[in-house]
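Hi R.,

Here's the chain you asked about this morning:
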Amino acid sequence: MTVSGCTNLTNIVLPNMLRTLRNLKELKIYDCDSLEEVVFPNLEELEIKGMDSMKLIWSNQLISDCFGKLETMTVSSCTNLTNIVLPNMLRMLWNLKELKIYDCDSLEEVFEIQGTNNVEESRDIAAAELMSLTLRNLEKVKHVWSMDPQGIITFVKLDVIEISGCSSLRSVFPTSVTKALMQLEKLRIINCATVEEIVAKEEGIETTTLFVFPQLTRLTLLNFLELRSFYPGKHILKWPLLNHLLITSCDKLKIFGSTKLSEQETNGLGHHANLIQQPLFFIEKFLELLTMGAINNFI
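And the predicted structure, written out as tokens:
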């Protein structure tokens, strides 16, 4: 079903019509300036474009699991949209596999997270099937995740992440999200001028943090004016399958460093060792990978 150019349309389907269209799998909506929200069950693919009046995609009164079959979602050129995934939608989008968001000028965050003390709600509930996340030209986005989910949400199946043109972003991932990216194969981040670190510092953590990307093969970082480190605290990075590395115009990023020098710096700082600007790679390990042919594309 495609709806396009209906400038005075405010609702796609009235509540009493939902049952009659329960088998609809694909919905595309273009340039319907007056549409304020989308309420539709059982979709597998949803594409929304050019909806200047839309502030919310989802109704606050959706029934449980009404979007449980949604696998692909694309949102673009919705100038007044401020949120994509609200807390009340986290359980409903459990089957979402691909999320693309382009050119939404008012968007400030993608996943709005709310903390909970409820044991039942603290399990892995949302976006567990998400495999691909693409964000482009979202000038006001300050956070992809509004806060560190701390286990409320995990993204263990994400294998492709591409982020570009997010000029207000300061960091890309919370710590807990990063630690769960065991299936990530491709990470591409470009033209995010204000990003200072890829992973935000976990509050209250003074010990060494381990980040392991066992499936990552391609890493691209382009045009970061403020990027200084992968993680601002003391950490260990492991990406054993990395074979394609492209880093350009990241002048403040310390790409290479010596293991011995790092140990000397750590000893000198004592308990303030977590403030060290660690390199992305230790030169000894990197040369070993080059010798073995593990990294065959490096720029």
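Residues 259-269 form the longest helix (11 residues).

Let me know if you need anything else.
M.
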